[in-house]
Amino acid sequence: MNPPTLLPARRVGPDTDLFSTHATLPGLGVLPINAYLIHAREPVLVDTGIGALEDDFVASLAERIDPADLRWIWLTHADPDHLGALRAVLDMAPRARVVTNYLGVGKLGLLQVPPERTWMINPGQTLDVGDRHLQALRPPVYDAPETMALFDTRTRHLFSSDCFGAVLAEPALAAADVASADLREGMALWASIDSPWLAQVEHEALAAACRPLQDLRPARVLGSHLPPAANLDPFLYAAIDSARLRSPFVGPDQQAFEQAMGLAQPATA
Ligand SMILES: [Fe+2]
Question: What is the pLDDT of residues 195-205, one digit of tens each?
């Protein structure tokens, strides 16, 4: 299993940089893990990568911005693949506050992030970052109740958090570079792993939950676990709808895993 490495940061649209790595999912493929920097008048970091790459992440961040200038860290939710370098970034960015909601603040409190470093908003509200507003949204698919996606009203980028993630055969620079059938299958697999409750949701309910995001007509969907996606909206929504029909993912148990990975001990006489 390859240890994750941080790819060079790159511009993925106006005002927006991507910091990306890939986690290997043994037997399944690779999962992109993305964080973003919005070069707003009050700069915003969206998530902070994984802890194993903390040093690389802050070094890469410092190549794109003086961390002391960061004003906001929008934590889409408090999972380890989103808050990996949070502590280091908070130390480097003394003026930055973590944007989340009541539950997110509670979870961060358990990690000893003091309340004066957090800023609570709720889905439907906006954050003024000087030259644009960031609109908080509850995505239709998520794995943690504090999850908030965000929409940049200036670039029309939708940062969708775990929604629209995809397990891929190999890393890709753009979602459009992945064959449609592979992307659909990879998205359905990811949804069945990350949001197994989706199998209990009726089509109409999911469609209603998707509508507020669709109505925004984003220029790009920038997911936490998807290569940047432009002009793919109908496909993305159809893919998560088809994921409803999939059985919730159940991984191998220890014995099956060891067998599949060739780790099983030969039986001794
Ligand atoms: Fe995630």
Answer: 999 999 999 99
